[in-house]
Write a structure and sequence with these properties.
This protein is an alpha/beta fold. The protein has a single domain, classed as Rossmann fold (3-Layer(aba) Sandwich). It contains 7 helices and 7 strands. The protein has a 7-stranded mixed sheet with strand order 4-3-2-5-6-1-7, sandwiched between helices. The longest helix has 17 residues. The protein starts with 7 loop residues before the first strand and ends with a helix.
Length: 186
């Protein structure tokens, strides 16, 4: 079940998409327009152990990968670094925000760990959230979100259209002429 006016959006991407570039561009455009955007967008690659995240509110880059171990192939996410990044986002969120961006929904969030707490915190404060979700993880996302999410294509136009609707409602502070599914479940 989806609600076109829901404040929780999943940018669903395939292997050939670049959700990080889309989210960075979206965040940059909103910030240029004066919006208070808080969150993080993934950068770097596992292949060379440079997996990182850029905090969109400060521009700081945080390494998320563990240092490569002898004989290891690929990289491994450092959960303490991920939690530290999440705490930094939570601290920025407590100062106020118009939007929260979460870099990925993955197995940690599916299992109730990772950055899922940021989604809950933002929505409890009536702050819209957008997150990148791989098509392979979308069924898990729907379970996590209880179906209360907008599914967006992995492109800037889809994000802009969603944000336009969400920001109009929050700016006007006028109740919609009907109760949305997301509002009814809050």
């Amino acid at each position: 079940m989806f609600d076109a006016q829901c404040d929780l959006a999943a940018v669903v991407y395939d292997d050939n998409d670049d959700p990080d570039a889309v989210l960075r561009d979206f965040a940059g455009g909103l910030k240029a327009d004066g919006a208070r955007v808080v969150g993080m967008v993934q950068t770097g690659q596992c292949a060379d152990s440079s997996l990182s995240a850029v905090l969109v509110h400060s521009g700081e880059t945080l390494l998320l990968a563990q240092p490569p171990s002898k004989g290891a192939t690929g990289c491994k996410l450092d959960l303490s670094r991920l939690q530290d990044a999440g705490i930094r986002v939570a601290d920025a969120l407590s100062a106020g925000a118009d939007l929260v961006i979460i870099n990925r929904f993955g197995k940690r969030e599916r299992d109730g760990k990772g950055l899922g707490f940021l989604i809950e915190r933002a929505l409890d404060a009536d702050i819209p959230v957008v997150i990148a979700v791989s098509r392979q993880s979308f069924a898990d996302w729907i379970k996590f979100a209880g179906g209360m999410s907008v599914k967006l294509a992995c492109d800037r136009h889809a994000l802009d259209a969603w944000w336009h609707n969400v920001s109009l409602r929050s700016t006007a502070r006028v109740a919609p002429d009907h109760t949305t599914v997301c509002e009814a479940c809050k």
